[in-house]
């Protein structure tokens, strides 16, 4: 390890000394057929990312960064697409940025403050094709991505369009499902009674025999199955069987470096679904990407109000979408629920204002909530 690190230092120093234009050098290098400092550097740094001897299966474990804040977004992408540049733009963390691949060698957390919430942004090493099979530190990167609430897939607008599908393939291979809901299939294993398979509508892509065979392959011989969606595929069925190893995560595809592509191509990229475009270099589109992230995370801001006093809009409580008054209580204090009598709600979730509600009431973004406790 020390050897590689030393060699890397040497080359980096040399590059600093010579201060050549590396694009120029790249072309010259191609002509002459020798290995350039830049690509030599990338190769050596890739070696640093290889799991060392004895790392074994442990190499698949995530990086040791504890979760903090209200949500976590992972930056995933091929090397040198600008992940660390983006992190440095939107947080106070200054990650190392350079023109060679594998500049980032571990997970680097930063904090994005937005609408009163703190969102942890995780900058990750670049992944390469074959990451899912354990190439480079790919598996570790993907494990870290799996722990996030949202993936920001950073793509290089100047690179081939295939990069997006390649990366999706790597994530799919380890059970990450992007921008999809779990298949609408009810599957319950039983102790006895054989298989009971039913469909709420005639399925288009599978039939009872196929379902039977899949279940038998997975040794699920006694169970109840209800397929509630006519478009279900065999892959969907497998996802349900392996649901403990599947993770459904939102993804925003972000094309960086749009300063270097033509306007027509840019327009085409921007129209793809779940996609945003930006240039970290020219400071273009960054705020839009951040706004889109906030929307996708669907976090809810709740303002609390005490009786007889105006609501406190300076500090919001942050809860997930689908949260109830009970979740709001838990966010304030662990034991608040115990003395809960009712809550008053002003805002989008209230039918009339204020609406008197119980613990089960679902809250909406920017609701004002006043919790009334039982007398002691
Ligand atoms: N033209 C252009 N270059 C950019 C832009 N954003 C970043 N770069 C350059 O792209 C190179 C790579 O940037 P990094 O932020 O290190 O990329 P990374 O994805 O973190 O790379 P790894 O950590 O090696 O995976 C640097 O030379 C950046 O200056 C951009 O918007 N336009
Ligand atoms: K880089
Ligand atoms: Mg980086």
UniProtKB/TrEMBL annotation:
GO molecular function, one term: GTPase activity
All copies of domain OBG-type G, residue ranges: 71-298
Pfam families reported in the protein's UniProt record: MMR_HSR1, MMR_HSR1_Xtn, TGS
PROSITE patterns noted in UniProt: G_OBG, GTP1_OBG, TGS
Gene3D superfamilies linked: 3.10.20.30, P-loop containing nucleotide triphosphate hydrolases (3.40.50.300)
InterPro entries in alphabetical order: Beta-grasp_dom_sf (IPR012675), DRG (IPR045001), G_OBG (IPR031167), GTP-bd (IPR006073), GTP-binding_2 (IPR031662), GTP1-OBG_CS (IPR006074), P-loop_NTPase (IPR027417), Small_GTP-bd (IPR005225)
CDD domains referenced in this protein's UniProt entry, alphabetically: DRG (cd01896)
Keyword GTP-binding set for record: yes
GO biological process: positive regulation of cellular response to amino acid starvation
UniProt keyword list: GTP-binding, Nucleotide-binding
Residue ranges constituting the TGS domain according to the UniProt record: 298-373
Alphabetical list of NCBIfam families matching this protein: small_GTP
Record-given protein name: GTP-binding protein
Species in which this protein is naturally found: Eremomyces bilateralis CBS 781.70
């Amino acid at each position: 390890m020390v050897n590689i690190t030393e060699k890397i230092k040497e080359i980096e120093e040399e590059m600093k000394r010579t201060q050549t234009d590396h694009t120029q050098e790249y072309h010259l290098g191609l002509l002459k057929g020798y290995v350039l400092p830049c690509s030599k550097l990338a190769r050596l740094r890739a070696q640093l990312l290889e799991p060392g001897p004895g790392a074994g299966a442990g190499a698949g474990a995530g990086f040791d960064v504890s979760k903090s804040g209200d949500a976590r977004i992972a930056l995933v992408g091929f090397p040198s697409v600008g992940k660390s540049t983006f992190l440095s733009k939107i947080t106070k963390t200054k990650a190392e940025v350079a023109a060679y691949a594998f500049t980032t060698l571990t997970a680097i957390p930063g904090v994005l403050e937005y609408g009163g919430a703190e969102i942890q942004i995780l900058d990750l090493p670049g992944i390469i094709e074959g990451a899912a099979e354990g190439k480079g530190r790919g598996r570790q990167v993907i494990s870290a991505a799996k722990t996030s609430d949202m993936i920001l897939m950073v793509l290089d607008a100047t690179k081939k369009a295939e990069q997006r599908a390649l990366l999706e393939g790597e994530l799919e291979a380890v059970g990450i499902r992007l921008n999809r809901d779990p298949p609408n299939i009810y599957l319950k294993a039983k102790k006895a009674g054989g298989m009971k398979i039913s469909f709420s509508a005639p399925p288009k892509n599978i039939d009872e025999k196929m379902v039977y065979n899949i279940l038998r392959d997975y040794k699920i011989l006694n169970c109840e199955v209800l397929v509630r969606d006519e478009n279900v595929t065999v892959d969907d069925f497998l996802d349900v069987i392996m649901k403990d190893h599947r993770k459904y995560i939102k993804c925003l595809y972000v094309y960086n470096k749009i300063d270097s592509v033509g306007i027509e191509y840019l327009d085409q990229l921007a129209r793809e679904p779940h996609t945003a475009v930006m240039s970290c270099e020219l400071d273009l589109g960054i705020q839009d990407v951040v706004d889109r992230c906030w929307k996708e995370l669907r976090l809810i801001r709740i303002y609390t109000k005490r009786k007889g006093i105006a609501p406190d809009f300076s500090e919001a409580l942050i809860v997930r979408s689908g949260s109830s008054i009970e979740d709001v209580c838990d966010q304030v204090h662990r034991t608040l629920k115990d003395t809960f009598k009712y809550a008053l709600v002003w805002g989008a979730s209230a039918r009339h204002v204020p609406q008197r509600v119980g613990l089960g009431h679902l809250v909406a973004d920017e609701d004002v909530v006043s919790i009334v406790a039982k007398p002691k």
